Amino acid sequence: MSIQVQNVVKRFGSFSALHDVSLEIPEGKLVALLGPSGSGKTTLLRVIAGLEAHDGGTVLFDGRNAAYRHPRDRRVGFVFQHYALFQHSTVFENIAFGLRVRPRAQRPSENEIQRRVQEMLDLVQLGGLADRYPTQLSGGQRQRVALARALAIEPRILLLDEPFGALDAKVREELRRWLRRLHEQMEITTVLVTHDQEEALEVADQVVIMNRGRIEQVGTPEEVYDSPVNPFVYNFLGAVNIFRGRLADGKLQVGGLELDAPEHSGRAEEPAFGCVRPHDLVVSRDGHGMPVLVKNIHVIGPWVRLELRRPDTGEPLEAELPKESYRDLGVSVDEMVFVTPRKFRVFLEGQTG
Ligand code: ADP
Ligand code: MG
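Above: inputs. Below: predicted complex with magnesium ion.
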C-alpha cells in the first residue's frame, strides 16, 4: 500500500510539531524518517498511523483518505522502542494476540493460528522459543517477537519507531541487516523512525531528513549523503569541514583556494562557505592547495584521520584517507601539508537550512 502525506500540520497547543509536511511513500519501499530528537519523527509516524489527529492536511493510503478507513481495515503493524511484550504471556501467545482479538467472524481457526504463529516464529528465526516468556529472552529477541506480533496480522503497512534504539550497537547492527533481508522477502511498505544516521543509510530505500517539524531532504541514502541540499543535512549526516570566504562571479575564494560555484554565479560579492566531507579533502605535499598544519593523527582500522589547522585563521579541519595513501604521504605531526577539496558544495552565509 502506498502512503501519501499531503501538507500535514500538527500542533500541540501553540507549538507546531509538523509544519506543512508532504511526503510520498511508494508501495513496498522501506523509508526511514531520520532526524534529531524532537524533530517530529514520532509525531509524523503517529499521524500516518491514525493515532494522532492532525490539524491540517491529508493522509492517503493507496490514494484514499486514510481517515475514512476503520482502524481495523487499515492493516497497520507497529513496533515501538519500548512496546513491551505481554510479560505474562508466552512468545507464542504474544504473537497470536492480534489474531485472537479479531471479531469472531474474521478470527482464524485455532489450527490456522498455530500455523500462522509458527510461520512468524520461523520468519524471525525464533522457531524453538515459542514457550518462553519475554523475560527469558535477550533484548534483540524481544524486538524480533514484537516484529513477529506486528507481522502476524498481515499488515499492509509496517511502522517502526526506533525499534532497535534500546539495544547495544552490535545487536542493533545485526538486527538492521536482518530487517533489510526480511523487508526484501515481504515487501511490505515500511516506515522506520530512527535518529541513527548509519541505520537509516544502511537499510532504507529512501531517507527523509527531518528538522524542527519540517522535511529538509528526501532521497536515496547515496543522494542525501553525497549531495546534501543544505548545511543542516551536511552536518547531520556526517563530519564536514567549513571553508568560509567570499563569493564572486560564481567562485568562492578561501585561503588561496578557489571553489567553483556556478549555481551562485551572477550574484554580487557576498560571504559564503564551502562544505567538504573529510574524505573529500585531498592531502598532498606538492604545494598545491591550502597550506595546513598536521596537529594529530589517528589510525582507525583501515582509515587514518588527520586533525589539521589553518595557520592563517587557526580554524581546525579534518581529513580522512585510506591507510595506504597515508603511508605514501609520509607525514607526521606539526608538518605542513596542502589540502584541496575533491568534492564540495557552496552555500551563502545565513543559509542554514
Ligand atoms: P522525535 O520523534 O523526532 O524525537 P516527536 O515527534 O516525538 O519528535 O516530537 C516533536 C516535538 O513535539 C517535540 O518538541 C515534542 O516535545 C513535541 N511533542 C510531541 N508529543 C507531544 C505531546 N503529546 N504534547 C506536547 N508536545 C509534544
Ligand atoms: Mg521519537
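The pocket of adenosine-5'-diphosphate (ligand 1) is lined by residues 12, 15, 17, 35, 37-43 (CB under 6 Å).
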